[in-house]
Amino acid sequence: MTAAVMLSATAEHDLTDLLASMLERAHGAAQLDRAEAALASLDRALLQQLGASPYSFPKAGARPTRRELLIPADNGGFVALYEIASPGQVVVLAVRPAVEEDYQ
């Protein structure tokens, strides 16, 4: 069974900010292509991987239903914090760029 993936208002805002930041830093077609590829990776991970197997990613905090999805991309990637609301629904709470300090 595939879970429906919903975005919280905060996650939608985060994605808008990430897109604006990537486009602002892009100078030339190659960098725009990299930004587009990073967004495609993010989209694929959130909508396909997360919905297909929400329990397979690391826990984030004390609650077993709060987890993080690490999304690799050329720009270093992203981290999506999400909550498994029910067996059929996952809510993405926040999305941010991944930084080296994230690795444990």
Q: What do you see in this structure?
A:
- A hairpin with a 2-residue loop joins β3 and β4 (89-97).
- By secondary structure, this protein is α+β, with helices and mostly antiparallel strands.
- The chain has one domain (4-99): YaeB-like fold.
- It is built from two helices and four strands, in the order βααβββ.
- The longest helix is centred in the middle third of the chain and has 24 residues, at 29-52.
Name a few traits of the molecule:
four-stranded mixed β-sheet, 4 strands, YaeB-like fold, alpha+beta, 104 residues, elongated
What class do helices, strands and sheet pairing give?
A: alpha+beta
Query: What is the top-level CATH class?
Result: Alpha Beta
Number of domains: 1
The description of the largest β-sheet is:
4 strands, mixed
Helix content: 25-40%
CATH fourth-tier homologous superfamily: RelE-like
The CA-CA distance between the termini, in Å, is 31 Å
Number of strands: 4
> Helix count?
2
Radius of gyration from the CA trace? 14 Å
* Secondary-structure element pattern, one letter each: EHHEEE
Taking pLDDT < 50 over at least 5 consecutive residues as the criterion, the unreliable ranges are none
Instruction: Please give the order of strands in the largest beta sheet.
Output: 1-4-3-2
| Reported CATH architecture | 2-Layer Sandwich
CATH topology: YaeB-like fold
Average pLDDT figure: 85
